[in-house]
Amino acid sequence: MTESKLSTQPYKGTRDFYPDEMQQRRWMFDHLRQVIGSYGYQEYDGPMLEPFELYAAKTGDEIVNEQLYSFVDRGDRKVAMRPEMTPTLARMVAAKGQHLQKPLRWFSIPNLWRYERPQRGRLREHWQLNVDLLGVEGVEAEVEIIQVAIDMMRGFGASPVDFEIQINHRQLMNDVFEQVLKLDASQTKAVARAIDKRAKIAPEAFQTLLSEAGCSPEQIAELENFLTAPLLEIGKICGESQGYKDLIRFFDTVNALGLGPVCRFNTSIMRGLDYYTGIVFELFDKHPDNRRALFGGGRYDNLVGMFGQTQMPGVGFGMGDVTLMDFLKVHGLLPEVKAHVDILVGLFDAEMIVQNQQLARHLRSAGFKVESVLKHQKLGKQFELADKRGIPLVVLQGPDEALLEQVSVKDLRTGAQENVHMENLIDWLQAQLA
Amino acid sequence: MTESKLSTQPYKGTRDFYPDEMQQRRWMFDHLRQVIGSYGYQEYDGPMLEPFELYAAKTGDEIVNEQLYSFVDRGDRKVAMRPEMTPTLARMVAAKGQHLQKPLRWFSIPNLWRYERPQRGRLREHWQLNVDLLGVEGVEAEVEIIQVAIDMMRGFGASPVDFEIQINHRQLMNDVFEQVLKLDASQTKAVARAIDKRAKIAPEAFQTLLSEAGCSPEQIAELENFLTAPLLEIGKICGESQGYKDLIRFFDTVNALGLGPVCRFNTSIMRGLDYYTGIVFELFDKHPDNRRALFGGGRYDNLVGMFGQTQMPGVGFGMGDVTLMDFLKVHGLLPEVKAHVDILVGLFDAEMIVQNQQLARHLRSAGFKVESVLKHQKLGKQFELADKRGIPLVVLQGPDEALLEQVSVKDLRTGAQENVHMENLIDWLQAQLA
């Protein structure tokens, strides 16, 4: 045995989930699964490792160059730990192509890896719910995906004042860049990046970024006018843009469904990933202590086609567990979730271990959740253990009870203790626990 | 967009879980969780990456040198993708040490990585149920762990003729090696390795391995005598060994619990990992087409102590999803598991998408699982879609029905179609689906 003492800390930017934290995580995911399942979405999963090229192709530069966990395996293949799930989804869909019955309503809750400086809401390993609807071209797909997102938040008890979904359209932005502002390709990228930062920097700093991108004062004025215009005004600027038409149809539908109050058009929403082609959105926390994007998504119509098979339109979003947990905490929506055991089978003395085990087996086969005491200690200590674990009933059988075919049951919620005949025990316990 | 075509295949030795396979995986894990939960075990999880040293210290040489996925991260830390869960468990327990209420009954279902040549039952990424009981010194812990394993198998519908648990004791083997055969340390390792291979090689090959390990003909004869002796005979050879005493007590208890028929003493069970200290066991499939170990485990009393804090005894096992799935398949114990959706809300014509979505929302809020048709196609096609997906009811509302505040419901199980008033719809549907 080695004498050097190993650290007990988890790897930087990752978490250990002890049973209490794991209960919370499961509570959160089960909750999400329930809402998503009510829309008919089916769960899928893929491998933790993917070929490096899968991300080099379409994921944003920052992730690939600065944040990707990649290495060469023992067989000389360059592989990466998945930083996001959408490329895996696209690969899987492309692999089965025509054989899958459309539309596909799929979701997954993978763990993802990014080499980040750990900070509030950002860790190196996090879990991310991914919800995707593939095979639908019209904005009905976006409407459904936004409904799923809203219903998830509502399912946790969030009210419309707690969050807001901000919506934009990539095609609208491209049309404005190219047809209205007449920017060239290199300017477009820099301007898009400046818009992405706009909410976080001073107006002067934003204008400086635009100047550096080669925008003239006229272009800057026109862009500022566009960025602050309400959606209907934008119809006058570029009413022929498919992006504008999609947004009008989208907002008409969500308004008719009564979801208007949590949806807002915002030209600053760009989304960093390269593969979005249509409507993009981000869900924001409106709490003053936590004002930031919780998650986002959008339409990616060309991603499946990059595998050279059939093209397939898609819309989806990814929601991280860390930011969601922060949201639930800051809004007081996280209940105390405790593991649940019905009965502790105590040990009267060390020699009665077989009886204790038989009794525990008997109760488990009747459907109870049962812990049993494996090492003799004073009965007071055994009751204390049950109490600390929140186990309501302690069942004990000493030699006297065994002779009478009875057990003694202590109810820690009331302190009452009673002898019960083995014949009636199951019914009696069921009544106590009902 | 890049023109080079990416492969749609998953990384070698890993699997894509499409919804059907994912349903199977979830069915299997939910099943395991239910049995384990009935014993009061609580779920935990740890990070996918751990410091390399965590495995270098105690995991077997073959895994670390030939099979470990390890690399240096962007911060120059040597890290490894976990090849097994027990070191993470030991680290987590050591970190909280005294603050955890003993005994600990913990389980986890992590995905694990080993660089293996993919073959039947062995993949590079697999999921492994880990069940561990920490803080109990006596063989009562082993008895409980074996019960959990047996109940899991029975829970899947396996009968006692389908599997067998073979049991040995590391301390007994060490005592035989040192006190009976008088082997030195280097011989012990080679002999242990030979015993590990014994079941798979010819008797002569086994004897050759022992000779090469430096065993005399007398030692070989004595060893063969020991290896084939029933447990009670071994009492005559080394009755003072703690290993022998533990085994006697263990078998007395499992026999008293009626579990004797699936438990068998077998001196060939060595277990590859370095950290076992007491009873070790493997569960074997008895099916003629699949004769092999499904999983195994044992006692590891010194693992938590390697972090320099308190020592804590532990017993546990790890069961892989690939081998378990093979077992269920070969024994015909894998049911067809299908995703379940109650209702498809059809789309009468493209203009009625808002009504269709409102109707779907209404039904979901009443607790139904509802898919909705987002793109208009002939009604016959919509019924066909529902049928293929196994959705029993299709609900439709055209302009005539809307005017009468009715919907039309088609039951695909019977072919019957009926108009139902919105006021009675929820109750009516509940009755149909009951």
Q: What does this protein structure show overall?
A:
Two copies of one chain form a homodimer. With 434 residues, chain A is of the alpha+beta class. Chain A has two domains: 19-330, 2-Layer Sandwich (BirA Bifunctional Protein, domain 2); 343-433, Anticodon-binding domain (Rossmann fold, 3-Layer(aba) Sandwich). Chain A has 16 helices and 17 strands. The first copy, chain A, has helices at 19-37, 53-58, 61-67, 86-96, 140-155, 170-180, 185-197, 203-212, 217-228, 231-238, 242-256, 321-330, 353-365, 379-389, 399-403, 425-433; strands at residues 42-43, 49-51, 69-72, 78-81, 104-108, 111-113, 125-134, 163-169, 263-265, 279-285, 292-299, 314-320, 343-345, 370-372, 393-396, 406-411, 417-421. In chain A, strands 1, 5, 6, 7, 8, 9, 10, 11 and 12 form a nine-stranded mixed sheet that branches. A five-stranded mixed sheet of chain A has the order 14-13-15-16-17, with helices on both faces. Chain A has a three-stranded antiparallel sheet with strand order 2-4-3.
Return Rg of chain A in Å.
Answer: 29 Å
Largest interface: A-B, 97 and 98 residues
End-to-end gap of chain A: 51 Å
Mean pLDDT, all residues of chain A: 92
Q: What's the domain count of chain A?
A: 2
Give the CATH architecture of the largest domain in chain A. Answer: 2-Layer Sandwich
Considering DSSP H and I runs of 4 or more, what fraction of the residues of chain A is helical? 40-55%
- The count of helical stretches of chain A stands at 16
Low-confidence stretches of chain A: none
Largest sheet properties of chain A: 9 strands, mixed
Q: Using the coordinates above, name the CATH class of the largest domain in chain A.
A: Alpha Beta
Q: What would you call the quaternary organization?
A: homodimer
How many β-strand stretches of chain A?
17
Classified in CATH, the superfamily of the largest domain in chain A is: Bira Bifunctional Protein, Domain 2
Structural class of chain A: alpha+beta
CATH topology of the largest domain in chain A: BirA Bifunctional Protein, domain 2
Shape of chain A: elongated
Strand content of chain A: 15-25%
